[in-house]
Amino acid sequence: MKKSILVGMGAVLFASSIYGAPEKLRVVGSWSSLSLYKEYEKPYWKKEFSKDFANTKVRLSSLGQIKLKGAAVYRQLSKGVFDVVSTVGGYVVSDSQTIAGLDFPALANDIVTAEKIVEAYKPTLDTALKNDFNSKLLAVVPYPSQILFCKDEVRSLKDLKGKKVRASGWTVAEFLDGIGATGITMSYSEVPQALQRGVIDCAVTGGLSGYSSGWGEVANHLYPLPIGGWAYVVTAMNLNTWDKFSKNEQKILLASINKNITVPAWKKTDYETSEGEKCLTGQDCSYGKANNMILHTVQEEDTLMAKNILVNNVIPKWVKKVSPEVVKQWNESIGKIVSIEAK
């Protein structure tokens, strides 16, 4: 009798170790107007996810629908209000400065370097999400490189001196300060009118995003140095929810997200980065009628100047905001890739 009871209990424990996915998930995807959400996140959570987890129902919203600013959406994730959240890492650095180390201005000037940086920093990022937001890292995907739109001619970083530039975060503002420009904070939707009226001289966003939002109709000059980084979208799951999945299910989930979101979205970002430049500068554009902005070539002296500002202005400020252990991890991962020592 005792033996049969023990066998029965063992069977129950074995089954629970294999099947543990929750009955429902509340998922918040990124911005619904952009391809990452439309082509990858939404199809995955609405369709592909159920192939592996047929008994789990998903309720999907986008960042625009929940209307929470900055780090608030990750705070709600940490409390379990949401189970999964995808948001731009730069939005949440006020609550986790470790995340800021992923995407400094002009740190990665091409997508190959950007991907190496992300892979190298993932362990540090995962730990930061656990400690700061009670969550597990699922994916990191970039938006197109965040480049410079200006109303008047800008051929080099030196031309930004004295200009007012809409900045996307504190690291970009520090970078601009190092150039002699002034970082201005304003909502994304206000930028076209602000450029047109001369309230600001320049602004930073992805090329295709700027094209879709009409920036190319009011700005005349495009400078493609990614001083705004890559605006990485970080996807994380609440740890309590993560722990409901069995070890095997966790592996299946990570592999599925990588296959259906991460890998194809990185390829699409590479395409959209180059396509954005075409659509803004009068070349063949697969998204509609091209704008007539003037594209300026990034000079080698600007690449060196950007690195100098990063090393002497931005990174020292960041070092003061994080622990020595995080600085050490950054130097041993990203630092080795870009040949920079944070100190």
Explain this structure.
This protein has 343 residues and is of the alpha/beta class. It has two domains: 15-143 and 231-273, Bacterial extracellular solute-binding protein, family 7 (D-Maltodextrin-Binding Protein, domain 2), CATH 3.40.190; 146-229 and 286-338, Bacterial extracellular solute-binding protein, family 7 (D-Maltodextrin-Binding Protein, domain 2). The protein is built from 14 helices and eleven strands. It has helices at 2-18, 35-52, 63-66, 72-79, 97-100, 111-133, 170-179, 191-197, 207-212, 239-242, 247-280, 300-319, 324-332, 334-338, and strands at residues 24-29, 57-62, 84-88, 135-141, 146-150, 164-166, 182-184, 202-206, 221-223, 233-238, 294-295. It has a six-stranded mixed beta sheet with strand order 7-6-8-5-9-11. Strands 2-1-3-10-4 form a five-stranded mixed beta sheet, sandwiched between helices. Helix 2 (35-52) packs antiparallel against helix 11 (247-280) and helix 7 packs across helix 12. The chain is globular. The relative contact order is 0.16. Residues 1-17 have low confidence and may be disordered.
